[in-house]
Design brief:
GO molecular function, one term: metal ion binding
Shape: globular
Radius of gyration: 24 Å
Pfam families: Biotin_carb_C, Biotin_carb_N, CPSase_L_D2
Largest sheet: 8 strands, antiparallel
Number of domains: 3
Strand order of the largest sheet: 14-13-10-11-12-15-20-18
EC number: 6.3.4.14
Domain Biotin carboxylation: 4-451
Number of strands: 21
CATH superfamily of the largest domain: ATP-grasp fold, B domain
Keywords: ATP-binding, Biotin, Ligase, Nucleotide-binding
Helix content: 25-40%
């Protein structure tokens, strides 16, 4: 029986580590940070009550080094581990090692992580729970086998090839016609093997105007499962989400109820016991939705759900890990605001080439209805070894228009980052685009509108402010002393 948690080691860095530590501060639970050599001056290291160096820059030598992380927990007297997102968050072996070391794992049962990490098994369970799945073939051995399935099931090109053990958009490739099937099949197998050590694939029908809708679920260890409504994560680049919002503009009330309760049905079937997300692909033309995958961890975009419902999902995860029953029933959970999140990454907004270095100036947006989840400070380094996302900017409003207006203020007036390039100009272009504002977009929005989005970038000159001040000083000098001086 897990009792009260007294100290938490956060097995992560940057934004997720800081986010978890903020809730721990609210709960008066001391935290332990782990850090690599280039991260020794990172924000999460300063925020924690204790910090342990676990290795060099490359993740395999630090944030993916399971034994070093568990040693750090035991050496500092931590009695629980929260993995955040990314790195080891969905690694069943790590979860088992944490539990075997006598520590509390703040996440779902390792068996569930392993089961949902296998896309083939997850799809089978979804079918068993009567959850619609995209027509597809599992583990085809050759391009010929894919063609045979397409003829048998009357499926047309394009199709999607993806890694059977995939996640995070890796090992996914779209095949437009029969001519490119052989080369794309080999490419997907190679990517799958590099990313997951297993080359098996799934081939699926490609949903042309797909929209990505996911449902936030929380389940405890006593069989209670509730949903915290849905999020729309359709604005993506190379299968990586950039903007997320709740409620989903693509759903009406009937479809919302159906998709949320379908997610609950699936998670009950699994016996899910933490915070997690069920991802669906919505075909905008037919209004049908299909199961994609289950994310067995805290999602990057959980903050918009927290803004809309007023709940703290990290706090709920800790309560569940302590084997306490969920403090809420479904009818008590309300979503009463519109919330939007933009992921700020250190990348060139035109080419998405990573931008590393020191943040020489940082102005963080503030004011009404803005929430910031940051992993950096002015003067901090963005090292080349890790994910380039360093800040989540969230806005809320009584309706979607208001939430977009607040986001516009945050990005265009409130945010200033110098020293590294960021995708802020692209984010501003997207939220100002008439189709985004009308809620009419698919997962291909960015690739379809990229040139148009870039053409809307406003070029800012770092000397602009200096010139303004110089002009003002010159005017004052020319006018001579004034009454107000």
């Amino acid at each position: 029986m897990a009792g009260k948690i007294n100290k938490i080691l956060v097995a992560n860095r940057g934004v997720p580590a800081v986010r978890i530590m903020q809730t721990c501060r609210d709960l008066k639970i001391p935290t332990v940070a782990v850090y690599s050599t280039p991260d020794r001056l990172s924000l999460h290291v300063f925020m924690a009550d204790e910090a342990v160096h676990i290795g060099e820059g490359p993740p395999l030598k630090s944030y993916l080094n399971m034994d070093r992380i568990i040693e750090a927990a035991l050496a500092t007297g931590a009695d629980a581990v929260h993995p955040g997102w990314g790195f080891l968050a969905e690694n069943a072996e790590f979860a088992r090692k944490v539990i075997d070391a006598g520590l509390t794992w703040i996440g779902p049962n390792p068996e569930i992580i392993a089961l949902m990490g296998d896309k083939k098994a997850a799809k089978e369970i979804a079918k068993r729970a009567n959850v619609p799945t995209i027509p597809g073939i599992e583990d085809p051995q050759s391009p010929e086998e894919v063609l045979e399935w397409m003829r048998r099931e009357k499926v047309d090109f394009p199709i999607m090839l993806k890694a059977a053990l995939g996640g995070g958009g890796k090992g996914m490739t779209k095949v437009e016609n029969e001519d490119e099937l052989a080369s794309k099949f080999a490419q997907a197998q190679s990517e799958a093997y590099k990313a997951f050590g297993d080359s098996s694939l799934i081939a699926e029908q490609y949903i042309e105007r797909g929209r990505h809708v996911e449902v936030q679920i929380v389940g405890d260890k006593h069989g209670h499962v509730v949903h915290l409504f849905e999020r729309e994560c359709t604005i993506q680049r190379r299968n990586q989400k950039i903007i997320e919002e709740t409620p989903a503009p693509s759903l009406d009330e009937d479809l919302r109820q159906e998709i949320c309760f379908t997610a609950i049905r699936l998670m009950r079937e699994i016996g899910y016991d933490s915070a997690g997300t069920v991802e669906f692909l919505l075909d905008a033309s037919t209004r049908k939705f299909y199961f994609l995958e289950v994310n067995t961890r805290l999602q990057v975009e959980h903050g918009v759900t927290e803004l809309a419902t007023g709940l703290d999902i990290v706090d709920l995860m800790i309560q569940i890990a302590e084997e306490r029953p969920l403090p809420l029933k479904q009818h008590e959970i309300r979503s009463n605001r519109w919330a939007i999140e933009c992921r700020l990454t250190a990348e060139d907004p035109r080419t998405f080439a990573p931008s590393f270095g020191t943040i020489t100036r940082l102005q963080i947006p503030d004011g009404p209805n803005i929430r910031i989840s940051s992993g950096v400070y002015e003067g901090a380094e963005i090292p080349p070894y890790y994910d380039s996302m360093f800040m989540l900017i969230m806005s809320a409003g009584a309706d979607r228009d208001q939430a977009i207006r607040v986001m516009d203020r945050a990005l265009s007036r409130g945010l200033r980052v110098e020293g590294v390039k960021t995708i802020a100009p692209l984010l501003i272009s997207i939220i100002r685009h008439p189709q985004f504002r009308a809620g009419e977009f698919s997962t291909r929005f960015i690739e379809e509108h990229m040139e148009e989005l870039i053409s809307a970038f406003k070029e800012t000159d770092p000397d602009e402010e200096v010139l303004k001040i110089a002009r003002y000083v010159a005017e004052i000098s020319a006018l001579g002393p004034q009454k107000w001086m």
